[in-house]
């Protein structure tokens, strides 16, 4: 049982429920950000980020910077883009548009491939686009939190390496890192960025990313300096390398208490094979998706291979809005999220199934949520005379 | 007595010791960043930031963004500077150079006034510079953490309004907000930025700033869009205004647990008149500075009016380095910081006296630190045969 005060179970696609130990590790007494205690904690955390990404290449570089997941887009855009360079965005929802807006802020000339809602760009479409002009980078959301659509980042990267090998592959893994399979080195990815608060299960406030040697070299060989100061890879790189070697270093003060939480969370995650973690998320996701289908609901993600394993976005029955169903869920102790994709926000709800709610066998979060969903839907239909 | 595990007292110029209640408030159970509970907490926090800055002008705008204090420089630079505009930096230590580097990253043409170490630019020098060319903004560190030198931000702002009224006055208050007097409206400041981890006493990881209507209007009337995405005032403004009106809104996920800690800390701070808080920090600072003088040590800050009230940077006796003295302090349960100003880093140490170590009458942190300093110095001198 949790030592936390009684509360409804947070099952939105992030932030997610906290493990007690992760939450309590933030109560560590104050430390100097350059003292030996914290330097060790931060150094070990960076090394565990490598394991999280299944990366063993010492020339790849993990980053942990105080900020929201969004800051990762600024890191990609301000370090990898020079004014006027081309970026190709594979749109699968709300976060594709935002990632594109961030790239444009730093001078990118953005092309988006935008399929119908619930679909993802096909490999043929991506190949066609890559052959039309040289792209400095490709940007895709692994799981788009607004739709639950999964991009096939492995196949896209293979395609890029075949068709346009110099193009950098950057992945927004905010809603996937820690629950979807990612083999950073083996798949030859260039940047995968995430936040601390989703499948990693730490509190929000840390921007976490993994950078390939190719990406780091691209930053080092820029013709112009990086176009951000706080998000500059060159400002952080020596500092994070020092921390990982247990040497104090300073660029900006790390979020010490959040790093403690991340250390605990990553210690738990990396104590088991990552493959096991991905498998259990996939199993539970299959169960959720079967239950949703049994309730007669359709997912936004149109095909099994497009469907994320850490969340499920589902259309409500005709005539029902999120405001008809979410209060009934809350009454039963469960919090889902309303729609986020602007065009259809009032037509669907989102169920996040990541982290401790999946991996802790003592919790019954998913069973409770599915039972609550069934009841809340029936209640809402009855109230509306449907 | 603190409920925290036994530990040496952290008396560096930030991060500082935690109040138990502040530390424990991070253990709040997981909440949706757009749910009513967190929306209320965040909205109240923003309103308390106004009080922290003694601001009652509803058109002034508080910002609380996940990130280090350093991110505040990016907010100033990317929102207020357009390429090629002039910025005047009043250098009082390490952070003047860094603030200048950030401004340059976003296209500013920077002029620095650099006095001798321990001094601050005189009003006459600032007036002369302001008359030489039009400056879009002036940038100064209120207390430079590397030297303990205090800029007279009130007098500088009066001067700017008289000589160059269109110039925006921006202040790095990372080491001053919460311990030095700041009257945001009355002094007609434009931006004061800070971090959560110094005199405010919350954990590191939040960039906090206050913006005047003049500064906000400057951003809104830019010829080019802000040159950062994550640090864009235009991206955050509607979201923070909504939160303060208790309406959910989204740009990037706030650091929910840190916001809880900040809420608790600001509730404590604003429950008493700010003048009382400034007075007690000044009293304790006077006591520290008298004790340091009695030990025969000289401060970096050359004159009483240049000396900050939240920290003291002191030269060690000839022949002693920080590594000779800091271990002796640690042995006595006290952590001070080594020097940070590159040219003289091995010649001095820094003592932070801010927050709960000053305001909690049950703690004897300053007395203990002064006693430990006396003993550690004597021990180090003896070991060196001085």
Description:
Two copies of one chain form a homodimer. Chain A has 386 residues and is an alpha/beta fold. Chain A folds into two domains: 9-17 and 273-383, Aspartate Aminotransferase, domain 1; 21-270, Aspartate Aminotransferase, domain 2 (3-Layer(aba) Sandwich), CATH 3.40.640. Chain A contains 13 helices and 14 strands. Chain A has helices at residues 20-24, 36-52, 71-80, 94-105, 123-132, 153-163, 213-220, 233-244, 256-270, 274-294, 322-331, 356-359, 365-383; strands at residues 9-10, 61-66, 86-90, 109-113, 137-141, 143-144, 149-150, 168-172, 191-195, 206-211, 311-315, 334-335, 337-338, 348-352. In chain A, strands 2-10-9-8-5-3-4 form a seven-stranded mixed sheet, sandwiched between helices. In chain A, strands 11-14-13 form a three-stranded antiparallel sheet, covered by helices on one side. In chain A, strand 3, helix 4 (94-105) and strand 4 (109-113) form a beta-alpha-beta unit. In chain A, helix 5 packs parallel to helix 6 (153-163). The longest helix of chain A is centred in the C-terminal third of the chain and has 21 residues, at 274-294. Chain A is globular and about 65 Å long. The model of chain A has no long low-confidence stretch (mean pLDDT 97). Chains A and B meet through helix 3, helix 4 and helix 9 of A and helix 3, helix 4 and helix 9 of B. Chains A, B: The modification N6-(pyridoxal phosphate)lysine is found at residue 198. Chains A, B: It holds the Pfam family Aminotran_5. Chains A, B: Keywords: Aminotransferase, Pyridoxal phosphate, Transferase. Chains A, B: Residues 21-341 form the Aminotransferase class V domain. Chains A, B: Substrate binds at residue 350.
């Amino acid at each position: 049982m949790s030592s936390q005060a009684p509360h409804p179970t947070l099952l939105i696609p992030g932030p997610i429920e906290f493990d007690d130990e992760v939450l309590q590790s933030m109560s560590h007494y104050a430390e100097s950000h350059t003292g030996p205690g914290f330097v060790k904690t931060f150094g070990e955390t960076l090394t565990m980020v490598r394991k999280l990404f299944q990366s063993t290449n010492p020339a790849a570089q993990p980053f942990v910077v105080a900020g929201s997941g969004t800051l990762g887009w600024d890191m990609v855009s301000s370090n990898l883009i020079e004014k006027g360079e081309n970026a190709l965005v594979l749109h699968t929802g709300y976060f594709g548009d935002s990632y594109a807006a961030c790239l444009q802020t730093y001078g990118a000339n953005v092309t988006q491939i935008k399929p119908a809602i619930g679909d993802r760009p096909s490999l043929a479409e991506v190949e066609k686009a890559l052959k039309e002009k040289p792209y400095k980078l490709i940007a895709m959301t692994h799981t788009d939190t607004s739709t639950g659509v999964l991009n096939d980042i492995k196949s896209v990267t293979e395609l890029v390496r075949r068709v346009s090998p110099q193009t950098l592959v950057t992945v927004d893994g905010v809603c996937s890192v820690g629950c979807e399979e990612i083999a950073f080195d083996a798949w030859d990815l260039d940047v995968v960025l995430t936040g601390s608060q989703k499948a990693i299960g730490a509190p929000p406030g840390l921007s976490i990313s993994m950078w390939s040697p190719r990406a780091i070299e691209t930053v080092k060989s820029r013709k112009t300096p990086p176009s951000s100061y706080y998000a500059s890879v060159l400002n952080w790189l020596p500092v994070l390398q020092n921390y990982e070697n247990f040497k104090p270093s300073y660029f900006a003060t790390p979020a010490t208490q959040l790093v403690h939480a991340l250390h605990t969370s990553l210690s738990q995650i990396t104590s088991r094979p990552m493959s096991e973690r991905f498998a259990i998320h996939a199993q539970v996701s299959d169960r959720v998706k079967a239950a949703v289908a049994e309730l007669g609901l359709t997912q936004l993600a149109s095909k099994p291979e497009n469907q994320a394993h850490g969340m499920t976005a589902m259309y409500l029955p005709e005539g029902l809005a999120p405001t008809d169903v979410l209060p009934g869920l809350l009454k039963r102790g469960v919090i889902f999220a309303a729609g986020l994709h602007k065009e259809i926000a009032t037509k669907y709800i989102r169920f996040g199934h990541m982290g401790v709610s999946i991996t802790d066998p003592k919790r019954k979060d998913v069973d409770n949520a599915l039972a609550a969903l069934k009841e809340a839907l029936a209640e809402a239909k009855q109230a509306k005379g449907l």
